[in-house]
Design goal:
mainly beta, seven-stranded mixed β-sheet, four-stranded antiparallel β-sheet, about 50% strand
Length: about 120
Amino acid sequence: QVQLVESGGGLVQAGGSLRLSCAASGRTFSGYAMGWFRQAPGKEREFVAAVSWSGASTDYTDSVKGRFTISRDNAKNTVYLQMNSLKPEDTAVYYCAATLGNPSPRYRRYDYWGQGTQVTVSS
């Protein structure tokens, strides 16, 4: 079992920045690839970014490339999502997730999920 707890969400103006954190506990964190997903009201859960267990490989959805950066610190059992140049369309609940498989944009590939943190971007 892996327990995931997100933090760092909040209200920010368009153009601003936030850094989300996801703290993991339980099994060896470094063995898991990690992903960030988001879900806006009335919409399906959407892939945002993923990182391999080592941090060497990352992937992003097109809409956040160049603005968001995913990273991890295995010594701290934490994965981060640095979000810059935020837009109102980034407003959503953001979830982190863990998988023993390869990083994937498919949410069904992930075995463990956090409870989510709200990000609201005002125009």
